[in-house]
Amino acid sequence: MEDLLLANMTSLCDSEDNATTDQNWTAECSTSRRHGAPAIDNMTWTLVVVDGIILSIGLIGNILVIYVVARYARMKTATNVYILNLSIADSLFLVGMPMIMTTALLRRWVFGAVLCHVFYALTSINMFTGAFTLTLMSADRLAAVWYPVTSARYRTPSLAAAAAALAWVTSGAVMSPVVLYAEHLTRPALSDSEPPTYSCVVNWPAEKSLTAARAYVGYTVAVGFLLPVSGVCVCYALLVARLRSTRRHLNSVTSKRHPIARRSVTCFVAIIIAVFIGCWLPYWCFQVRRYYSVVKNSL
Fold first, then answer.
1. Residues 1-56: pLDDT tens digits?
2. Angle of helix 112-146 relative to helix 78-106, nearest 10 degrees?
3. Phi/psi class of residue 119: alpha, beta or left (left: φ > 0; alpha: ψ in -120 to 50)?
4. How far is 240 from 235, CA to CA, in rounded Å?
5. H helices then E strands: how many in the chain?
6. Which domain holds residue 224?
7. Model confidence at 275, in pLDDT bands (50, 70, 90)?
8. pTM
């Protein structure tokens, strides 16, 4: 979740006792202030370029998915509704990426107080929406394989859309602390001739900022990653068991085309979920290690 990385980055020059502050970055911020311009290292430029590539490819791909699913009636299936929901969530995150890139280069927030709250609302909520949607997709595949006839009445585009909407509402409730504690803070100018600068941060309660930050990381790891991934793994374990035990029966009762189509969709969803886990697992490991290292060093 790059919004947490942005929170770390934009809060570095604000407070030395902030839970996300790193001493090396703080020293660099102080040096850059004294010289009047932020020092941009090669790693920052590399990340900005990579983010730009992701932004370009991601927007094109997601816009095409949204157009195809919305345009053609035969594409309006329960599975495609979930894929459409994923594309919308990804697109909303990509909209915020220019703000991340700009803030990484300037080391300050230049988009104002309103966009600060909008940014955190969009980037934090859609992260959990993606995880919850993948869990819904796995449950949908499980129902399609275990109960191919009886589940057909429930696996409709309208019910899938309602489930996707519920995923957004649940994500908003789960991520409400980020939105509530997001603040547009003013950094004091170094001299009267210089204008003040601003940062957009998640400002946890000052009395227990370290405890709140640590609790939040554990909370988001559990709810936004471990629980959805556990649900996905359970669904696919049951799905594989069912496919193995009923393969002969399916081939004898239904036509050859339907089992092949069903297995193709199942494999496609499995690939999406595998990519999700592969992309997010390193990030969550990094976040847990980073925050608990801060806790260890503060003791």
1. 444 444 444 343 443 344 333 333 333 333 344 444 556 778 888 888 888 898 89
2. 150
3. alpha
4. 9
5. 10, 2
6. 2-298
7. confident
8. 0.71
